[in-house]
Every structure is written in C-alpha cells, then in structure tokens.
# Entry
Amino acid sequence: MQSRSWLMRPFGERSTLIFLGVLLATMALVTLLHVAVPAGHPLYVSAYTVNLFGKYLSYALLAVAVDLVWGYLGILSLGHGAFFALGGYAMGMYLMRQIGDRGVYGHPVLPDFMVFLNWDSLPWYWHGFDMAGFAFLMVLLIPGALALMFGFLAFRSRVTGVYLSIITQALTFALMLAFFRNEMGFGGNNGLTDFREILGFNLRSSDTRLGLFLATGVALALGYVLCRAIVTSKLGRVCVATRDAEARTRFLGYRVERFQLFVFVVSAMLAGLAGALYVPQVGIINPSEFSPLFSIEIVLWVALGGRATLYGAVIGAILVNYAKTVFTGVMPDAWLFALGGLFVLVTVFLPRGVAGLLALRLRRRGDSDASLSAKEAAA
Amino acid sequence: MSFLRSLASRDRVFDFLVPVESPVDVRHGPILYLEDVTVSFDGFKAINDLNLTIDDGELRCIIGPNGAGKTTMMDIITGKTQPDSGKVWFGSRHDLLTMNEPQIASLGIGRKFQKPTVFEALTVFENLELAMAADKRILPTLTARMNGEIRDRIDEVLLTIGLAELRGRRAGILSHGQKQWLEIGMLLMQRPRLLLVDEPVAGMTEQEMERTAELLTGLAGKQSVVVVEHDMGFVRSIARKVTVLHQGGVLAEGSMDQVSSDPRVVEVYLGAEAEEEAV
Amino acid sequence: MRYPPVAWPVATGARAGSAVEDSEPMHAATRGSWLMVLVLALTLALGLTLAAPASAQDAERSDDTMAQALLAALDVSSFAAKGEAIEAIVRSDDPRARGWLQALLDGRLQRTDDGRFVVVLDNSGRQWPVEDALTGEALGEMSRRDLDRIGINNARRNQLRSAIAVVDLYAADAGLRRASAERLLGEVDGDLAGSLAEVIEAEPDARVKERLLQALAIYRLEQGEVEAIDDLRGSLHPRVRVALARAASGAIESRAAAGEEPTLVEEARSALSGIEQKLKVNRAVETLYFGLSLGSVLVLAAIGLAITFGVMGVINMAHGELIMLGAYTTWAMQQLLPGQPGLALILAIPTGFLVAALAGIAIERGVIQFLKGRPLETLLATFGISLILQQLVRTVISPLNRTVVTPQWMSGSIAINDALSLTLNRMVVLGFALVVFAALMLIMRRTRLGLEVRAVTQNRAMARSMGIRATRVDILTFALGSGVAGLAGVALSQLTNVGPNLGQNYIIDSFMVVVFGGVGNLWGTLVAGLSLGVINQVLEPWAGAVMAKIIVLVFIILFIQKRPRGLFPQKGRAAEG
# Structure
C-alpha cells in the first residue's frame, strides 16, 4: 500500500471502494429513476427530488472538507461556511453575468441590483466573471486565498484549539456583516438570485438539474478521493501527529504551521467548490450562508457522522439535512429543538458518531486506520 | 552544467538559503555550549547565569531538586523558550537562539519529554516513520513512498528498542515503559547528534529501568546524551559525569562520587534525601 | 406684562376724590364746617360702597364680553387672522391669557356646539373633562364629538411659544422664567428688547440672567452691534451659533463706521471658532461617553464569560442565552408588578441573577460535567443548548420582541451644557457594570470561594487533595458566571430590545472581549470591553455602524495573531500548557 503513488493509494482501500461504489450506484439509480420511469409512477424521482439530492451532495462535500481539518488536523473551524459562501458568491457572480440584458431593468452589463442602486459601471472585482473559466477558477482561488491569509497569520502565531474556533467564528460573522452592506456590491441582504442559465443550459430545465446533481456527485467522489489520499499519505500521519501532540511533531522537525496551512487551504477550496455547486441548484446565494449558525451546523454533521473517517461526514451531512427537510415540512418549530438536542446528544453520548457505531461492529484488531478511539476523542 | 543543476535545486542557489542541515562543527570543542543564560518568569529567575558545556559523544547526567531549572534549560536548548540573556551554541557554528524548534530539531538535537509523548493514534511503525530524518517539507511528505531502505532502518531501531513485535500496534496501547522506549526510538530515527532525555525512567519497573540504562549507555559515543533524572540509583548506574543544578545555576560538576561528597550538594539535594533515609 | 398696567376705573375715582380734598375750598371747609366734611365724606363713602359692586360687576361683565370676543377671534379659518387674534390676547393683559395660550398650543382650547369656549383638561379617552375657558368653572365631561378644536399651524405654534415665553418672563417661578429665557433666544424683537434690559437688571437667577443677556445680544448683533459678540462668546447654544454664523458670513451690516477695528465679521468669526473648539471637546466627551456606555455593555456581557471561560476554561456558547434569560426575567417582573417598573427592575436584579445561575447550574450538571477536558465538544454541546433555549423562548413567550419599561428615575438625561447631555439610563448601566465588576473582583480576591476557584484552576488534583471539593467549586463558579450573565441581561433590557435573539447578538462580541483582554484576567476583560466600546464609537462616524463593527472584529482577529494571549497574558511555564 505504502509503495503506491499517493494519489492512487485510496483505491487500494476497502472503505474508499465501498464509498465510491455506493455513491456511483446512487447516482446511477437516481438518474435511471428520473429519466426512464414515467412521471406519476411510484418509483419516479422528480426533478425537485433530484435537486434536493444534489443539494445534499454539495453539503456532503462541505462536510468532508470540514472533517479534513477537524478530524485529522484537530482544528475546529467554525467559519467554513465562509469559504462555502465565497465559492457560492463566485459562482453567483458568474450566473449573474450570464443573465445579460434579460434582467428586470434590461441593462446589458449591470445586474439588476446595481441598476437599482444607480451604479453606472461594474465594480472592478466583477470583471472577468462573465467568463466561465475565470469564474470557476475563482471558486477555488478566493476561498483558498482567504484561508491562506487567515491561516498564515493564525498558525504562525500558534493560535489553536478553542481560540482558533472563536476567531474563525468572528471571521465569518464579520464577513456576514460586510456582505449585508449594499456598498459591497454583492446585492446586500437579497444576495444574488434570478439566475437563468449555466454554460448555456437553462437552470430551470430538469435536464440541467440532473446534470448538476451528477456533477456534484462527481465532485464529491473526487474530493473524497483527494482527502483520502491526503490522510493516507505520510502527510496525513503528520496531521494526526499534530492533532494529538503538536509540540512533539514540531520537535521531530516538521514545520507544523505549514502543514496546517496546506490542509486548511485545501479544505477551504473544497468548501468553495461545494458552495459553487450548491448555488445553481438552490438558485440563490445571500449573506445568511455566512451566519455563524450555519458554520457550526456543518460541524454537527461531521460530529454526528463521526470525525476522522470522511465517509462519516458524508453520512452525517445527508442524515441531518434529510431530517431538516422532513422536520421543517412537518413541524418547523421543532427543528431548532431537534438540532439543539442533537448537538448535546452527539457530543455527550456519541463522541465517535455514526461511523463509530459502524466501526464498533466491524472492529478488526491492529487496525492501522488513523481513526479516533473514544479516549483520543476526549483528548 | 553543474551550475545549472545547482540553480534547479532551489534551496542551494544562495549561501544564506543553505539549510541548517550542514554538519555540526565540533572541531573547536564541545557540541553544546551554554554561557551566562538567564531567563525569568514574572520576576522569578528560573535560570540564573547558567554555564554548561557538553562534549561530543558524552553521556551527561543532570540532577537537581525540583525547580532547579532542568526542564527550562531543555526548553531553551530546543528553542521552546527564549532566554532573557546569554548564549547557546551547538558546536561552534550554530547559534541556537536564532532558530526555531523545527530548525533546531533538524540540526540534530532530539528531545524526549518528561511525560512520554508518542502519537497514540498511529502505530509504532508509523511513529518511527514520522520521526525519521527525511525531507520534512510539505510536498515531499505528501508524496513520500515507503522503500526497502527506510523499512530496514525502522526495523533496525525497532530491534534496538525492543518493540519489533509490536510494530503494527497503536502506540496508545503500549505500556508506560514501552512508550518511553518508543520515544527514544523516535529520537534515534532522527539520527541526532545530541539527545536530550528528560526523566526516562519515571514510573518504570526495575527491569525496564535496567533496559533503559543499557539503551542509553549503548547510545553514548555515537551520540551525545544529556539525561535529566531524579532517580539516584539510575543516575549512579549510567553516569560518567554529573552536573548538579540548583536555583537555575550549576552548583557542582564531576563524577558521581565527587558530586555526592560535595557538602553544598549534600545540603541542597542529597542532604534532604539523606535525612529521609535516616528517618 | 408687556405694557405698564392700565389704570382701573376704581383707582381713577379715588384719585379724583383726593383731588377734591386738596382743593382750596376744602381748606376753608375743614376750618369752617366739620359737618360739611362729614356729609361729603359720608356721601363719598356711601357712593363708593354702593357704586363698587355695581362697577365691579360691570367690569367683569364687560371683561367677559371682551374675553369672549378675544377667543371668538381665534375661531376663524385664516391662520393670519388667528395670528392677529393671538397678538390681541397678549395685548389684552387678561390674567387668564397664559392659560388660554397654553391650551391653544396644546390643542386643548375647544369650542362647544353652542359657542362656548372650554379648556379640555384631559384629552385621553372618549369623554373629556372640560372647564369653562372664561370662568374656570368645571363643566363635567363632554363627548369629543361635541367639541371643536381650534386648530393652529407651525407658524402659530412658534408665535404662541414666544408669546408664552414673554408672559413667563415675569413669572415668580424661576423654572418658568428659565424656560422662557431659553425660548427667547433668537426671538427677541425691537419691542421686547427695550423692556428686556430692565428685566435682566431685576433678574435674581444667574442662569436666567445669562440666557436673557444672550437673547438680547443676538438681537443686538442682528442690529449690527459688534460689542454684542462679547456676550455670545463661548455659548454652545445652536441659535447663538446660527446668529454668529450669519454675522460671520457678512449678512449683517455693521453699525460701526467703516474701517473701524475690529469688524463685525472678524469678531463673529473669532467667536465662532472659539465655540467650534469647545464643541469639539464636547463631541469628544460625547463619543467617549457613548463608547464607555457600549463598553460597559460589553463588559457586562463578557465578565460572566471571563469567569466560566477564563477561570474555569469552560466554553459556554449558551452564555448569550443566559443574558437573554436575565432580560426576560426583568420583563416578567414588570408583568407581575404592573405600574411599578422601577421596583420591578430593582427586584429583577437578584431574581435575574438567580434565574440565570440556576439555569447555569442545570447546564453544568446536565451537560458540561460530562465533557470535562474536551473544550471543543463543550463548545458544540452548549451551542446546542443555546439553540434550545432560544427556541424555548420563541415557543413559550413569543418570537417577537417584548418591551421593558424604563422607570422614571432612569429616563431622561443630564444636560452638562447646551450641546452635551448624557442619557441617564446609559449612565446607570455604566455604574452598574462597574459595581458588578468590583463585586466580582472582591469575590475572586477576598473570599474563600475565590481562593478555592483559583486553587482548582491552577491544580485540580492538588486542590482536591487539600480537601477542596472541586465539584462543588465547579458548580459555584459556573453559577456565579451564569448569574452575572443574568445581571447583564437585566441591564441590557434597559438599553435594547428584549427578544429571543438578544443573546446571540452578544456571544461573539463577548468572546472577543475575553480573548482580547487575556483569558483568565478580569482586569483585562474590563479594559478590553471599555476600549473596544470606545474604539467602536470613534470609528462609527466615518465608517458607519456596521463597518465599525467589522473593523473592530478584524482588528481583534489580527491582534490575536500578534498576541495570542491577549492584552494581559498570564505568564510562566504553567500558562503554556
């Protein structure tokens, strides 16, 4: 296993193969049920449901990104929603520019909200977003750049643990306040919406929705494999070493802050990608994605699914969001009670999450997987 | 052509970029040299005008009552704590006060903490793998592959520390003594020139202690070893030269017999113990 | 009143009588015939006694007719005509004039359907108690439908105020005179200016006198008198500034001869710039006050956290909701004691503390104790609790904001000078924050609990072995920190809306304050809270409220990178663990 190239290593793992198998099978099944089964048939999957699944998968990718830093690096980021939202905004800006002169005001270049604010030209940072390639690059680069700047400062001065959590929360809070301002040029509290098409495909057509769902699935698969490759490499072991004994790792000669920064940036980019896939599927991006509540909710998905497994994060994201869909439909008032209760129950009674329960059943001795034991979770 | 090749390897183009891996220069004397080092926390002088010299290949024991500044001294040498004043040199080329912890570590100074710290979530083998002297930058670490040479080297150390059979087990399940050895093994993987060992036998059984003594004396000669220890019996069994610290400074230095007959030492340190024994 | 009292008919008669006495024939009569004098005197006296009731009645009757006419003149639709009618009332010197003018200004002077003028005493509800405008006789209650209000516009309102001010200048009550003087700034006209000098001379109250001098000086300045500026220097009143600015812009023609130094414009400018300087200081003081006030709120919100997080190392994300509980306790107390908001507020202090402390104990026993040594999990679990508490309040009470009444003694403000007044409620909260801080300091430094807390914090195992019951200390400490959060809620209810999101708005700020000040250091929390408040207020004018907040957040984020242990870090080997 160790002698393979680092990127190929995950394909030698049983857990990765199972994960990819389940994911691909689900994608194929949903596609089949959507395309081949006639509408009205009990097995028919509607475009709405496809869309919903697509949303879950983008959340799952976001959860994988959070698990990468929290599970393996021990950094509890309460600000990953910010990277997600930034990726989403980059995508939103592209979609906004795609509207062209079909907006309410019919301005050839300016999005509606800018016309409404009586702006006469595009702010400089909106240039280039009419080109898909540039915009998709920014989806990765903008969150990456923010993570690089923030992480560089934080890790260099060894801000870790609870302190880091608090200032990541402050970061996303500050960004939320900033994006609420109309002067920022991102549509204020309405955000960006009324999108029409992506890469020339009509966003309202069910084929485009299916395409977005499949693209999100592929992104999740690739993201998962990338994260898996990182955590099974020697670098992944350095991360785990850092998580459990940072000072010791430093004395071994590893520049811990650089490893933290590298993984943090990779994670932020994945979160940005998740946000970019999320926005065209829900049709809107607004500052509420920056809210501290959303960021901390992501952490709950990971905690529920089980940290430091990656597949646990996916399970958690899908479970919680499915529950949310059901609850908010049936009794919306109860959802916050349920969510709050989950936080308490998971942390107190289920420190290893659902994946921990699974692992307990499939326990093999001498497991070389770097997942947490209950005792280490406590550390 | 060779110039071009040197350009291609980015680290070596400029002299000041030549990394600290350059060998320690011990031709002009000791491997570690501390002069007039002082450090205080909130006005309390933890280290006070400390002078200490360790020769290449030496095994030195450092003893002293609690609060004598032993751990703080280790912190200074390894770059964890910056002293208020003084000089700390590694060989005659490297000023340790200008370097951070990883730089000092990659120079060849290994440290074993008082409380054994191994990476409990990783296997014994992986612990040693991480400790191994290698290119520890990000991308090489990410793409690192296992090969026969590395495996052999890890196996060799596993034998030295007597943990060959536990190589695949998580370090978290090891006994206290085994963790101590694993940690010493991790230090050996770094091929250090100087080993700083903080209380290696605390909490060990008699047998484990004997093994540890063997291990440490076996290392001396190839490496310089500095042992901080409370256990007098253990110190007596391995020590060639002993330094007694008291209130942040050196109180006495010499062989175990010399030191233990020094009245000042008896008063501040052994005295207390002698009284206890008398009771 | 504005004009020297008019002679009354009775007085004229008396004067006529004395004139008779003084006359030459009377001298002869006193000497010649006592009888004659007696008869004359008797006749005079009799005539007077007989005539007096009649003439008084006549006067009253004619007075009422006049008054009725005066009031009737108000009841026209043209506002210009109303203006003249008001002027007429002022000139009438009727003793009831002030009451009419005030009632007219307040919209309480009304006409009944049968043409009588009444003053409405209380115009809440449907039935209004009224009294006759002329006789002052109570007429019982009347339906609002039977009454016609005499309407006025803004111009009349101003006229009325000035008129009342003039009337009040002669009032016995110094407060009325002060208000009147205040009102007259910039309203003095030529007529008034003449009599004002005498009034100023006679005025016993120094402040009223100063005001009247300024009022007169503004008039004189407008007439082009350079010397008047000397009376206006240093005054912060906006009207003074308006007058000076007009003068400085050259809009007023100087009465002094051309070329004479100093010129009006220059003098006015120098006076203005002096005033500007004073205003700057005032503004700085005001910013500082608002900053300290905001800071005191931050300190209150954060100080409980400084104990639970800073001293115990427990991350309680539900801290904000404990604040919210304190605020809702205040609201509940006011519901229980309707009509006594002050008493309810005072009682809410211990109650709010208790409620929050009990909630804190429940959280500590129910969740946190199981997560000891796992700070990140504690953070998540307590966040869950905060969601539950918020939703609980939304479901049980209401998702909408509740109003908490500010008691009389806390509302209003203290006027330091014309440009600066400090609101009382903020001052009380500032004082409250300092008292709470001092009390906490005492508890931590001087009491057995404080000692035990510090012992347990520094070395739990050692403290236990010395017989300190660490669990009990945990509970008490957490209760203390939570209770203080409740106190913060009580104070906050006086400054902001009380709603389910109250706590959420403060939690990030509170953590920032604690981290910025240096964890485990109460002084640090105080300094950090107050300075962040001031920084925020200083930034606000040029950056806007939201941007100021963003800047402060970013500043703290950067600051923590530079000094991860805050402003006042704990030093030493133990602190580095």
In short: The beta strands of chain B are 32-41, 44-54, 59-63, 85-90, 94-95, 109-112, 194-198, 224-228, 241-246, 249-254. The radius of gyration of chain B is 20 Å.
